[in-house]
Design goal:
The chain is an alpha/beta fold. It has two domains: 7-131, 3-Layer(aba) Sandwich (Rossmann fold), CATH 3.40.50; 176-370, Rossmann fold, CATH 3.40.50.300. The chain contains twelve helices and 13 strands. Helix 7 (188-202) crosses helix 12. Bound molecules: cobalamin.
């Protein structure tokens, strides 16, 4: 039984592609037991603030090299305040591009700490561990996303202490819950992001929640990196939460079921749940966790015999063969189709290229999900 790890969000500002510093710093933070939600580079202030609130992080770490840092950091502080989330600290660095004079001005504007060239990685991790570990109180009257985010953290904290959080009325789901699973690298996150684009474009009022998992060991840090792949999901109609598996095998976290129960009665039309990359034996969703299961596969699964060993092929409602622009796609589609006929169930098979805009396969999948 362990307390929940410290959670922070890191990002690189708009018009800035210098991500090598933050990638190194992220790894050190993770090594030192911190859960890092990484939002990626070229990110707007609004996206950073929204993500920090939804992920209920203690602090935002920004790595900025292309100038404009005084205004950018200050705007993050300003927008956090506006959204009632000013207890989320803002810190960061940018090597020699942020001068000591700049840092003093940023301090006056509410930035917590700037790290200069020459600071060691371990000093920065020590700072995070010392200053951002405090438990945060839930505020009365907090705005919707903030309140929901805090409740999800409470569920994760209870699970970390070995307690199951009470989730009354689990059967009173108001959302359709769709589970996405499949091996790592099959393109699950990109596919979900493309589906979200279709929801946002075709259904003007639909709200979506995404519960996305990445692996971690109990008491250790984790890189929660799915947001860095998500482009369309940076939208006020999307509530995304990244979860570390915190030592649980099988693709989900000990807190997933309760978090899902909460999300599914929080007014979202759809709740999408994405597992970590799973293996042959995984059946992550059990019986009642989701309404529809999508298995996403890569055409390069090896010999046809491998298909007999993937148990999800027996239970998935929809099997997506993604990356069908790859050479082996035609053979894969026909082999998987034959494998599915053995099950004698009404399973659908869809061929997609999720990285391609307006992919007709993703359109077909969208129809199957919203039908
Ligand atoms: C590597 C690098 C690149 C790589 C980037 C690779 C990548 N994927 O990141 C490449 C070659 C692609 C590149 C491209 C460009 N670069 Co460049 N680049 C650099 C360089 C050499 C190092 C930056 C770095 O990663 N440092 C390593 C980090 C770990 O160390 P540090 O910077 O000292 O940071 C310390 C602290 O600040 C702290 N820190 C930093 N970030 C964070 C974040 C958090 C959360 C925390 C806690 C701490 C922290 O960590 C370090 C601790 O010791 C700098 C010059 C320099 N020597 O700093 C120029 C530099 C940043 N680049 C510059 C420029 C101009 C460019 C280009 C515009 C060039 C061009 N004309 O194409 C492009 C733009 C790229 C883009 N798309 O945005 C300028 C910026 C000038 C300015 N803002 O006034 C610099 C300063 C070079 C210069 N002197 O002209 N660049």
């Amino acid at each position: 039984m362990m307390p929940s790890p410290i959670r922070i969000l890191t990002a690189v500002p708009i018009c800035d592609g210098h991500d090598s510093a933050i990638n190194t710093i992220n790894l050190e933070f993770i090594r030192r037991g911190i859960e890092v939600v990484y939002l990626g580079f070229h990110r707007y202030v609004g996206d950073i603030v929204r993500a920090a609130i939804q992920e209920d992080v203690a602090a935002i770490g920004i790595s900025s090299y292309n100038g404009g840092h005084i205004e950018f950091f200050a705007d993050v502080v300003r927008q956090l305040k506006k959204k009632g989330a000013d207890e989320i600290a803002v810190f960061g660095g940018g090597g020699g591009t942020i001068t000591h004079d700049d840092a003093r001005e940023m301090d006056r504007k509410g930035v917590d700490q700037i790290f200069f060239a020459g600071t060691s990685l371990s000093d920065m991790a020590d700072y995070v561990r010392k200053h951002y570990a405090k438990a945060r109180k839930r505020r009365a009257n907090s705005k919707a996303d903030l309140a929901l985010a805090r409740k999800l953290s409470e569920i994760e904290d209870a699970a970390a202490k070995g307690r199951k959080h009470r989730t009354p009325n689990t059967e009173r789901r108001t959302s359709k819950v769709i589970g996405f699973t499949g091996p790592g690298g099959a393109g699950k996150t990109t596919l979900i992001d493309e589906l979200v684009l279709r929801f946002l474009q075709r259904e003007p009022k639909t709200r979506i929640a995404i519960l996305s998992h990445d692996p971690s060991v109990i008491g250790e840090g984790a890189l929660l990196g799915d947001r860095a792949t998500m482009i369309n999901s940076q939208d006020d109609r999307v509530f995304m939460r990244s979860m570390a598996t915190r030592g649980q095998a099988g693709g989900l976290s000990p807190a997933t079921e309760s978090c899902l129960a909460l999300l599914a009665r929080s007014g979202f039309d759809y709740v999408i749940i994405e597992t970590v990359g799973t293996g042959q034996e995984a059946l992550p969703f059990g019986n009642k966790l989701v309404d529809q299961t999508v298995l996403v596969m890569n055409p390069d699964y090896g010999a046809r015999l491998q298909l007999q060993k993937i148990v999800m092929l027996d239970v998935a409602d929809i099997v997506v063969v993604n990356k069908t622009d790859l050479e082996r796609a035609k053979a894969a589609l026909s082999e998987i189709e034959q494998r599915l006929t053995q099950n004698k169930r009404k399973q659908q098979i869809v061929a997609t290229v999720a990285k391609r805009h307006r992919d007709p396969g993703v359109d077909e999948l969208f129809e199957l999900i919203t039908r």
